[in-house]
UniProtKB/TrEMBL annotation:
Residues 459-470 have a biased composition (Pro residues). InterPro entries: MdtP/NodT-like, OMP_efflux. The lineage of its organism: Bacteria, Pseudomonadati, Myxococcota, Myxococcia, Myxococcales. Residues 1-23 form the signal peptide. The keyword DNA-binding does not apply. Keywords: Coiled coil, Signal. This is TolC family protein. Residues 456-500 are annotated as: Disordered.
Length: 500
């Protein structure tokens, strides 16, 4: 019987020694996990690809591809692609996959066995062994190996979703930065055009003042207007610089890469919006942060179950001791042994209580995320709809109305029925309407990017594809401030007045 027990213990120890070798075969490379993340992102973003810069020859090819993309006018899609390839924060986020993959491998490893040896000095002919060798293995780690690997794998799956969610966040931030840069450049172009007209106007006004056709009050009023136009241009240029740097940060560009060009006008809005009624359900199904939270909660539940299952086995060690009697030439006696931790004081009740609390906390977190998602979608859907309404109101009503007011004011000014101050007020109101129109276009596209982010992927395509509307005749075209819809400079009226 003793020999039978000895064989079983020995077989267990051999098995325990073999498992680490088998576990060591598990790769620590996170490339398979990254490949899955890349496939998920391609599906959610319409084919945009990811690349993990990890010091290979492919890094050079990716850098060359980015340089080629920067040589041409950069569209929003190209900007997002560059950000996904080159954003340093995002590249750092990919390392989370390496950490989680390493945890999976570590979970599949057993604790190393403990080896001990002793030699008795002095009387070597007594009853005590002269040499003792022993090896001890933590057997509990063998029993919990499968459960620990499942927990680590679920956390790895959650990490993949969190990394993919970070990619979508980067795509959203890039879209917003791109729209900000576009609107800022469009605003600068409009302000420069107004300034050029104001410069011509003020020169004409000064000439008329010297000729006695313009009094001091009228000249001072126009000079004040001219200085205000100059300041507005400076303010617009400052905002354009900040918006450009915001986009540089998202794209991860610096040095010679900063000479990129974009289309300096905000894109036209689609003719219709996608059906927005089912977006809440779509977001609940698609949001990666919610799915990651569920997986993390599942991992906690598994951890709790494992702890409960082994709560009475706080420590279980098995080993084998070999004793040799009589010094050199003596025989060996083998003695298997085992030790178990007695759960007298610590029955892991505190660990279990902590895990139970964490599980309950994770459930509340899942519900909170779901509630937040639904609320975000409703708010952003309303914001998108209202932004579209505001934009169309500016385009179809307010700006054309301001243009008509300016036209009528100019006619009355030329007929000497209106003063220059009232005419300048009408002009300023027209310019403000243009500015508000550009800002409304920017707000619309930001709301759309935010809604896509809240839904967790691209919005459904709009119903029908009617031709894009053209700017109404006589209304300001937001993408082209120098168009005929742009408000005229006050100086032209002064010229008419002086000629009348």
């Amino acid at each position: 019987m003793f020999r039978c027990l000895l064989r079983r213990i020995a077989a267990t120890l051999v098995f325990a020694a073999a498992i680490p070798n088998l576990a060591a075969c598990a790769s620590t490379s996170p490339k398979p996990a990254f490949k899955e993340v890349s496939a998920l992102v391609e599906q959610r973003t319409g084919g945009r690809r990811l690349y993990w810069n990890n010091g290979t020859l492919e890094d050079t090819e990716v850098a060359k591809a980015i340089a080629r993309m920067l040589e041409h006018e950069m569209s929003e899609d190209v900007a997002v692609q560059i950000a996904l390839l080159n954003n340093r924060k995002l590249l750092g986020t990919y390392e989370e996959l390496g950490i989680a993959q390493a945890d999976v491998v570590q979970a599949g490893l057993l604790r190393n066995p403990t080896f001990g040896a002793s030699v008795r000095l002095g009387d070597r002919q007594g009853p005590l062994p002269t040499e003792t060798l022993g090896v001890t293995q933590d057997f509990l780690s063998v029993l919990t190996l499968a459960a620990r690997k499942k927990i680590a794998n679920r956390r790895l799956e959650a990490t993949k979703l969190r990394v993919a969610d970070a990619v979508l966040e980067t795509a959203r931030n890039t879209k917003v930065a791109y729209v900000h840069a576009q609107a800022a450049e469009q605003m600068v172009a409009m302000r420069r055009t107004i300034l050029e007209a104001a410069e011509a106007s003020i020169e004409l006004a000064r000439g008329q003042h010297e000729a006695g056709n313009l009094n001091d009050f009228e000249l001072a009023t126009q000079e004040g207007q001219y200085e205000a136009v100059r300041l507005e241009l400076t303010r617009a240029e400052t905002e354009a610089i900040e918006a450009r740097e915001e986009l540089n940060r998202e794209l991860g560009l610096w040095g010679k890469q900063l000479g990129w060009r974009i289309r300096g006008r905000v894109a036209e809005i689609p003719t219709s919006e996608p059906p927005l009624e089912s977006l809440e359900t779509l977001a609940i199904d698609q949001r990666l942060d919610l799915a990651a939270a569920k997986l993390e909660s599942s991992a906690l539940e598994k951890s709790l179950a494992m702890t409960r299952g082994f709560r009475w086995l706080g420590g279980l060690d098995v080993g084998l001791t070999a004793d040799r009697h009589g010094g050199e030439g003596g025989g060996w006696d083998f003695e298997p042994n085992a030790s178990i931790e007695l759960p007298i004081f610590d029955q892991r009740q505190a660990v279990i209580a902590r895990l139970e609390a964490e599980v309950r906390q994770s459930h509340f977190r899942i519900r909170a995320i779901a509630v937040d998602i639904r609320s975000e979608v409703r708010a952003l859907r309303a914001r998108l709809t209202l932004s579209r309404g505001v934009l169309e109101r500016y385009q179809k009503v307010l700006v054309p109305l301001q243009e008509r007011i300016v036209t009528l004011a100019q006619e009355q000014y030329n007929a000497m029925l209106l003063g220059v101050f009232q005419l300048l007020q009408a002009k300023q109101a027209e310019i403000n309407a243009y500015s508000a129109f550009i800002d409304a276009a920017r707000s619309y596209w930001v709301a759309r990017a935010d809604l896509e982010r809240a839904v967790g992927g691209r919005l459904p395509p709009p119903q029908g594809h009617p031709p894009a509307p053209s700017a109404p005749s006589g209304s300001p075209a937001p993408q082209k401030p120098s168009s005929p819809q742009q408000p005229q400079s006050p100086s032209s009226h002064e010229h008419h007045h002086g000629a009348s």
